[in-house]
Amino acid sequence: MDSGMLAANASPYDRLVQALALIPISYYLFAALFIFLAFLYTFLEIHFLHDLLTLFRGYPVTLTYNSSSHLCQSLLSNCNILRGRYSVTPWLSGPHLQTVFLSVFGRAPPVTYRRHLFLTSDGGTIALDWLTYSDVTEGRSRVIDDSAAIKRDKTPIMIVIPGLTSDSSSAYAKHLAFNMARNGWNVVVSNHRGLGGVSLTSDCFYNAGYTEDLRKLIDHIHCEYPEAPLFAVGASIGANILVKYLGEDGTNTPLVGAAAICSPWDLLICDRFINRKPVQKMYDRALTVGLKGISLSCLVLQTGKALQSPDLLETLTSMLLVFLESLRLWIHFIGVQAVLIM
Length: 342
Known about the structure:
Transmembrane segments: 20-44
Organism: Gossypium darwinii (Darwin's cotton)
Largest sheet: 6 strands, mixed
Shape: elongated
InterPro entries: AB_hydrolase_4_sf (IPR050960), AB_hydrolase_fold (IPR029058), ABHD4 (IPR012020), Hydrolase_4 (IPR022742)
Number of helices: 13
Strand order of the largest sheet: 3-4-6-5-7-8
Order of helices and strands: HHHEHEHEEHHEHEHEHEHHH
GO molecular function, one term: monoacylglycerol lipase activity
Helix content: 40-55%
Structural class: alpha/beta
Keywords: Membrane, Transmembrane, Transmembrane helix
Distance between the termini: 74 Å
């Protein structure tokens, strides 16, 4: 730098500004881009550099199981993937990138369910969406047939319990149902109350600790198809409901086997985790928006009933219960530390 270009009587700050002005603008743009990419790399929890330094060898699979269980030993001996390493797609080296990619580019298989409506004792309605091998191969269903031959069918039945705001239309539920049906299973997706395009018909909603709907549903399917082995798969909060049900009923359950996928084993820890960083709070917000939509639709339904019902007190009470349930859900999922006493 030519010092003669700087005024001799200028203050140190003026000299600094004049010196910075001599730096080409492209350098500033490059520095800003570098800072932005570094921020994005940290914000999205990308681990590409770590994978690159480890030559993309992947991560060892950590298993927690009962070593004395013959079932676990059999699974380990037959599932090579459990003894391998987890390798991430290089250009999707981050959990949030994978989530966004699946949401934008994920394609669910063509699935046409056969719907049954299961009515609970308190007036609730649960949509059961069935898919069979004949549905994915021939486009017709055998499950809805009421003949005695079908009732004695020994084809395994898999019950799918979706996540918090998911239903049978979710991509992962369709993939699971389609692949199992293609392999000769009968699959039924149990939509939570108020989901699957079915309005809430009672004052009771679903939550992670309420297992009565699943219990009645499993007993119902077992009664309808007594010779068919029953299995269940739960995802996210559906896995939590399934595991809690298994713990409550133990060996009294008709289920032959069950699998829990991404179960939030400790809801308090999961709530803290989903609020630990700004990017996690985006998921929290998305879940809240979904729950608000469900709650508002149920509230609108109850409001419509109130306008047509002669018993105003009863309908207003019903509306209040739905409103309080909606409020309780909103308080929990927006992370407000409050207790609603009901």
